[in-house]
Amino acid sequence: MADKGKKGKAAAATAAAAPPPAAAPPPPPPSSVPKPQDKKDQEPKKKEKSVQPKDEVGTRKGCRRYKWELKDSNKEFWVMGHAEVKILSLGCLIAALVMFTGTTVHPLLTLIITMELSVFCFFFIIYTFAINRYMPFILWPISDLLNDLFAFIFLVGAVVIAVRSRQTMPMHYFIAVILIGVAGLFALIDMCLQRKHFKGKRVRRNALIPPAGKEQKFDKPKEGEKPPENVPEKAPEKAGEKPKDKGKGGKK
User: Fold this and answer.
1) How many Å apart are CA 155 and CA 161, to the nearest integer?
2) Biased-composition ranges for Basic and acidic residues (predicted)?
């Protein structure tokens, strides 16, 4: 019995000395549990178009740039009055050419009218399809200004030739001459409209000088090495000849 009592006391002592069992960690809150990502979020996002300014080309390229250039060129061409004036000049010249078909006309008249018609059509196509925006190396306002000046001079000369070449003028011939003079007047008006492009602008220096080419790259000597000096080349020795001793004198 005594042994059993001792064993019971020893078991109670070891049980009291043993540390209490660790408590289980509390479950994580539902908000911290990672949710599976949607497939839409995992897919790569498409590149969004960059926001571009309305008054400038910005970084537009390709079709976006051509659309902007086309709208801006036509807006400037029609708002400033160049298109209307050129259309009126074209109409007057075509009507004058039609009026001259039934009568004998000086060949210079038909030559001047067809020449001015082709030049006006050329500038109309250039500005309508914004071709001038892709050729900045040509000063288009100055070229158009010179074209209007020469057109006015040629058309006034055509009126003088038409009046001097005929003593009697039928009605349709007289109307054609008046239409040529009106076309020259519209060219003068267009020349006055071209002056708006030059107000408040200055010509850039070296604007017509082409860009410098790539500089030639020369082989630089490495550090610590001297550049090779100009060593005189030796004349090739002929076969059978002995090298001459420069130190020895002549025969005694």
Assistant:
1) 10
2) 36-58, 214-252
What are the C-alpha distances in Å from 152 to residues 89, 187, 188? 11, 6, 6
What letter would DSSP give residue 210? Answer: P
Between the CA of residue 140 and those of 8, 88, 118, what are the distances in Å? Answer: 115, 21, 17
Contact between residue 193 and residue 81 where contact means Cβ atoms under 8 Å apart:
yes
What is the pTM assigned to this prediction? 0.58
What pLDDT, in 10s, does the model give residues 157-185?
Answer: 999 999 998 888 899 999 999 999 999 99
Q: What ranges do the domains of the chain cover?
A: 81-202
Rounded distance between C-alpha atoms, residue 94 and residue 182, angstroms = 12
Residues 92, 180: contact at Cβ < 8 Å?
yes
Residue with tokens 């020795």: 237
| 3 state DSSP class of 30 | coil
